[in-house]
Amino acid sequence: MDGIFGSTGVWFLIGAILVWFMQAGFAMVETGFTRAKNAGNIIMKNLMDFCLGTVVFVLLGAGLLMGEDALFGLVGIPNLDFITNFETYDWSSFFFNLVFCATAATIVSGAMAERTKFLSYCIYSLVISAVVYPIEAHWVWGGGWLTNAFAGVYYVDFAGSSLIHFVGGISSFIGALILGPRWGKYLDKDGKPTLVRKNVKHVRAIPGHNLTVGALGVFILWFCWYGFNGAAATDMAQLAQILVTTTVATATATCSTMIFTWIKNKKPDVSMTLNGSLAGLVAVTAGCANIDVVGAFFIGLVAGILVDVAVEVIDKKLHIDDPVGAIAVHGVNGLWGTIAVALFSCGINPVVDAETGEVLSEQLGLFYGGGLNMLGVQLLGLVCIAAWTIVCMTGLFRLLKHTCGIRAGRLEEIEGLDKHEHGLPSAYADFLAAPLAAEMLDPEGVAPVAAEEEGEVPVLQASSADVKLSKVVIITRQSKFDDLKKALNEIGVTGITVTQVLGCGVQKGASEYYRGVKVDMDLLQKVKAEVVVSKVPVADVVAAARKALYTGHIGDGKIFVYDVEDAVRVRTGERGYDALQDEEPV
């Protein structure tokens, strides 16, 4: 086609580029919803599944998807046209299908996060990109058998609810099932961690380490989804319609999840609501070009509730550990979105004969007078796609399990895959326990003085006043720290050490919910302030702290007083009372 639309248009390629950038969105979602000790591993997997997939897609996958039909439309014939006919090869379609293939591959990363061997994941990426996705995608997008009419209607999956997300969700389910849960996710009757599903008696929530990063990933994915759904639009009117239905379904799903979790858990669940946005995007993908705003609304409404219910069933009932909700978001809502086309398709995008312009099928859904034929065709396609994916993925993951191994060792999992798989102490270097270099500067920007000879170290001096030293430890609410600091400063306490800690007292914490699982918050966030005093009376410190912290409610905190044997100022060697006194500024 001419212009910016069509299979060789500028918008077609821009949309494909947006789909490629979805890799960043998936990486952020998975990183944010998992623990910090595996952040580098998550990033590496999302990088490599695209890069490895590109190589095998060029060599084999593109031919299986885009090649000439063989075996009654079940598969395309691989060829070397990309080498022999480089100048005339359909590179637009190649790039478009490549980035969609990468999306199907990366979905599994989140469901199998935090305990999968990197080597096994790389092998999985190669196989799904080379064989599994290209063959089932050929059935619909490569001119295969599902492009034929059945009972006067055609199978509809405009942008991939079934071909990409349903396949990714099934692969995630099988992979997570064979792999087993994270260590400590499920507990047996004695409260000990178990990897055996039938022994599970208690489910633990394992919150992700960075909700902000996870939310950024969702916003990136939503933005890029306009290219995912809209890249194949044939004109401006259809593109606008796709953008609207995509937005309405996603916004409705987000609101639906928020309200549903608010009613169920008494508070709106942030991470689940983010999953609700993704569920709406997945569900509307198949029918975005065939539905109106009303259909988009109801598709999103169901998707928002469905994702929350599915996450809880998968976690609490089936005891399959999916850290990011990939099975519910992509698998369950990919299924729902593909079925929903047969319910809400309103004839906006009929099937037209390319040569004569004759309308071959209006593609009306059940609620628009189309009967059950379209529903039957959609179910037929789903069953066949599911069967192919189940056979391939079950065989692949079982083969990996019994050869190179699919699961990291317990020590590797507990200490983090970053450390053991990639030699990365932490993805967040500033939070390492020890400095990375000995030449780091002190807070004043002055390099520390090397003490090479014994004489350069100040000699310890006896205290000039034989005064008792006392340590006062104050544990209280974070919100009261500024009041405490001000009160201590007013009575002459200038030295203070502050630590953010977790703990609980007589209130035994509070119960919250994370992704539908009760979190026993018996360790609440507190501030621990420590001061050592000699000149300032301990009684004054205690009185000032109580006055600053008192609210009369449980949780005000505790004050502990200890005897201190000695104190030494490192720079001057002063001891005891003298070591605690302020020095006159030079």
Quick take:
51% of the residues lie in helices and 9% in strands. The strands form five sheets. The protein has a four-stranded antiparallel β-sheet with strand order 8-11-7-12, with helices on one face. A two-stranded antiparallel sheet has the order 1-2. It has a two-stranded antiparallel sheet with strand order 3-4.
Topology (SSEs and partners):
Layout: H1 10-32, H2 39-66, E1 69-70, E2 75-76, H3 81-84, H4 91-111, H5 118-141, H6 161-179, E3 186-187, E4 202-203, H7 211-230, H8 236-265, H9 270-285, H10 293-317, H11 326-344, E5 351-352, E6 359-361, H12 373-402, H13 410-415, H14 417-422, E7 469-476, H15 481-490, E8 497-503, E9 510-514, E10 517-521, E11 524-533, H16 538-549, E12 558-564, H17 576-579
Antiparallel strand pairs: 1-2, 3-4, 5-6, 7-11, 7-12, 8-11, 9-10
Describe this protein's structure.
There is one protein chain. The protein is an alpha+beta fold. The protein has 2 domains: 10-422, Ammonium transporter AmtB like domains (Ammonium transporter fold), CATH 1.10.3430; 459-579, Alpha-Beta Plaits (2-Layer Sandwich), CATH 3.30.70.120. Helices cover 51% and strands 9% of the residues. It has helices spanning 10-32, 39-66, 81-84, 91-111, 118-141, 161-179, 211-230, 236-265, 270-285, 293-317, 326-344, 373-402, 410-415, 417-422, 481-490, 538-549, 576-579, and strands at residues 69-70, 75-76, 186-187, 202-203, 351-352, 359-361, 469-476, 497-503, 510-514, 517-521, 524-533, 558-564. The longest helix is centred in the middle third of the chain and has 30 residues, at 236-265. It starts with 9 loop residues before the first helix and ends in a 7-residue tail after the last helix.
